[in-house]
Structures are given as structure tokens and as C-alpha cells.
Amino acid sequence: MQIAGPIGVTPRAAEQITVTVHVADQLLRAGLVAHLGQAGVRVLEQTTRSRPDLSGTVAVVVSDRPDELTLAELRRLVRGGRQQVVLIAAQLREPELVSVLECGVQSIVWRHQATPERLAQAIRTAARGDGELPPDLLGQLLSTVGRAQRSPSAALYLAPREVNVLRLVADGLETRQIASRLSYSERTVKNVLHGIMSRLHLTNRAHAVAYALREGYL
């Protein structure tokens, strides 16, 4: 998988998001760059000698159907919180979806739905630390995780406040919307989610929702 140079996304004048594009096919890369350009994206050519610090940036990864090489790349990008990841995929079966989420991918966009506006929205969402899945993919996730008995272990118990937050995450609400709905601060919502993921060794919000569903909380 080849890595293209960083891209600066400026959907609003006051917002500056750095994006890197990861795709092996150069023709596909050119089409993606053109798509992003229509959404106000400017390509910043960088040489390998002047590669910038990518911490806190958004990585856009294109893979028709993620294989082991793609999963390894996703883990590398997410490792240590260096980059939020938006995955553009043509298809994802249940085992592949679980593997992608376990890698820490925040947002997934179907390739046939990857319009300039849709990509820009996914990038902005990922940059905020939020995530989203296509409705049909979320439905697939919910239908496959099943419901099991709650673990009696106190360490694995979800408190009512945690369940309330995860229920709204499952409904597709962003951090600020969850905070407004529950009369919390955005920091509190983020802390609740971080606590759940740290305690239960979960990789991201979708993984936490899947856990709550599997354990019968939702």
C-alpha cells in the first residue's frame, strides 16, 4: 500500500484539518484527490525528506475489501493515537467489519457513496474524534453481535450513565449532541467513553457499542 502526501482539508475557513491518503492504485488516488478538491481540499505535496509529524491528522484509506496488509496498515496508522482513520471500502463482511473496528477505525464510507460532500463530512467527523458507520453497516453489526449474558465481574459492568451514552452513540449522535441530550459537558462524554474503552480494552466507539449489545445492555 502506497502512501500519498498530506492533504489540507479546509471545509470552513476557521477549520484546518490535515489528511493523508493511503491507496495503492495511483489512478484511484487521482480520482480521490479530485473528489476531495471539489470539497475544498488542497493537496500539499511533501517529499519523503520533509515528511511532517502526522499526529492528530486524519488518514483516508481506500481498500475494496480489507486484507491482512490493509489491517496491518490500519493498526499502524491508529497506533498511539497518531491518526484518526476514515476507511473507504467496497464491501465488508462481518468478520472483516469486526477486524476493521478492532484496528481502531473510526469511520467507514462505502465506495459507491463516497461523494465529495460525504467524504468531507466523514473527515470532519473523524477529526473531532467522533465516528460513524453507514446505516446498513451499523445494522449488520447490530444483527451479528447477538446478545449474551452479562458478565458478573464488576470490572466488566457498565454503569447506567455509561449505558445512556452508548445508547446515544448507537443512535448515531455526535459528542456535542450526546452532551446536549444528557446535559453533560462534551469533556464528560469523552471521559465516559474513554473510561469504557480503557476498562474493557475496546478500540473505539463502534466496538464499545458492539460490546454493550453483545452483553445485553442495549
Automatic annotation (TrEMBL):
SUPFAM superfamilies: C-terminal effector domain of the bipartite response regulators. GO terms for biological process: regulation of DNA-templated transcription. PROSITE patterns: HTH_LUXR_2. Coiled coil: none annotated. Residues 151-216 form the HTH luxR-type domain. One of its GO terms (molecular function) is DNA binding. It holds the Pfam family GerE. Keywords: DNA-binding, Transcription, Transcription regulation. PANTHER family: TRANSCRIPTIONAL REGULATORY PROTEIN NARL-RELATED, TWO-COMPONENT RESPONSE REGULATOR. This is Response regulator transcription factor. It comes from Kineosporia babensis.
